[in-house]
Amino acid sequence: xxxxxxxxxxxxxxxxxxxxxxxxxxxxxxxxxxxxxxxxxxxxxxxxxxxxxxxxxxxxxx
Length: 62
Ligand code: SF4
Ligand code: SF4
Description:
This protein has one helix spanning 49-53; strands at 4-5, 24-26, 31-33, 59-60. It is mostly beta strands. It has a single domain (1-62), classed as Alpha-Beta Plaits, CATH 3.30.70.20. The strands form 2 sheets. It has a two-stranded antiparallel ribbon with strand order 1-4. It has a two-stranded antiparallel sheet with strand order 2-3. A hairpin with a 4-residue loop joins strand 2 and strand 3 (31-33). The longest helix is centred in the C-terminal third of the chain and has 5 residues, at 49-53. The chain is globular and about 30 Å long. Bound molecules: iron/sulfur cluster (SF4) (2 copies). The site of one iron/sulfur cluster has 16 residues, from helix 1.
């Protein structure tokens, strides 16, 4: 149960501080979500926060 960031990512960094489990980090090319840490925001927020803030809608369910 984890979201992924697609290659559409523009490295804006908006998602990183919004993640309640610190699952998002800046990777070598684009930001990445650690599948072991992402809980899809269940228990924290009503909706996935990375999806809510991403300007290019590249945080998606695999
Ligand atoms: S869905 Fe929530 S827990 Fe998963 S990466 Fe996005 S902000 Fe973090
Ligand atoms: S908010 Fe979207 S475009 Fe910005 S760093 Fe995160 S995944 Fe990439």
